[in-house]
């Protein structure tokens, strides 16, 4: 009698039960650092950046390792970088080598993601991102943890949701319960997370961090810091602490259980369940980390001019010179996922049956072959954050 869907839903209900009952211990379920980092991620190889039209080639694992774009440095930290040795001068088809990493395991509701880096990619034309995405985009949502471009100094957090997943907004009533600034034009407008990929409504609901240490040069000169993202039945909260911040909750940096529901400090960004149902809008999330160059966001003329207009006439003029990429690297201490459900992310007890990324990656590369040069359609669109997957979604 029970359909498979019902069984899966029942299992999903059990999986979140501990937090419903009031226990809020988040135990370590995924731990990536040093060389282990690369074991947990696959390299989404692609000679063309179909989603964002960047001037990049994303290398496969063996090429990335042999060209030293991913390695562990002498401090034991994980380095992920853009090629800064190849001179592309005179080659009009030049695309710089970079990498696009996606976690093998997914993250489910009832999780806390903690990311500690000493350095993030930075510079004119550089577009780094740490985000999570469902296997179907935008239907299964996207959570942007670190993202901005060029010489921006403040990080931007955002959610993206599908138009058919139900309403997902950040209500104005909570704008004062976060330290970041919601990027909406009028104070009474809800910050709308729904994206309509074929239109210019594709930026999601963006919140800008208040600290100049949260992105780019400032982040790097402080020796980096720690980002935490909590996704539970109360909604989604993101925090950032600069290196050495006295506000960092105890236990961060260790592998012991954490209790983020007890943290008293306001998050930098807060997307409460009252505006965006965290169980309906987001499917199991693939952790994604990459570095793009130019493309729909960094290369947007208006965006580029705002912080790099005095450096180069346009974004693509930066790309041939390898010296422009000496700062285009992540140097990571660790990325950890803590969860209230010990079976989270590695078993089949999620609301969606595809809980490993193999199928996601298959469908992604399948769609990758279906389109060629939609870039022209998109380049004219407004400045926007994360036109992520805009083209893929046209399918
Ligand atoms: C992998 O990269 C290809 C090419 O850029 C892209 O179309 C696809 O969406 C990516 N896959 C995911 C899951 O992001
Ligand atoms: C990669 O790094 C190793 C060790 O530092 C070095 O021997 C090798 O030449 C580098 N390879 C490239 C392609 O830069
Ligand atoms: C958010 O955007 C979607 C898509 O345009 C729209 O249908 C919805 O009404 C918007 N929500 C609000 C509260 O404005
Ligand atoms: C960017 O600037 C360079 C150098 O001035 C110029 O040659 C090139 O045509 C420009 N590209 C675009 C897309 O405007
Ligand atoms: C490239 O960038 C690295 C830092 O990631 C730096 O150590 C190196 O000197 C840069 N230049 C070259 C030519 O490798
Ligand atoms: C989980 O799902 C995979 C793929 O559908 C299947 O091969 C595997 O047997 C399932 N594992 C369990 C424990 O049900």
UniProtKB/TrEMBL annotation:
Keyword list, A-Z: Signal
Domain GH16 positions: 30-302
Cell inner membrane listed as a keyword: no
Cross-referenced InterPro entries: Beta-glucanase-like, ConA-like_dom_sf, Glycosyl_Hydrlase_16
Gene Ontology biological-process entries: glucan catabolic process
An example molecular function term from Gene Ontology annotations: hydrolase activity, hydrolyzing O-glycosyl compounds
Superkingdom to which the source organism belongs: Eukaryota
Annotated signal peptide: 1-22
Pfam families given in the database record: GH16_XgeA (PF26113)
PANTHER family the UniProt entry points to: GLYCOSIDASE C21B10.07-RELATED, GLYCOSYL HYDROLASE-RELATED
Name of this protein: GH16 domain-containing protein
Species in which this protein is naturally found: Tetrapyrgos nigripes
Lineage of the organism: Eukaryota, Fungi, Dikarya, Basidiomycota, Agaricomycotina
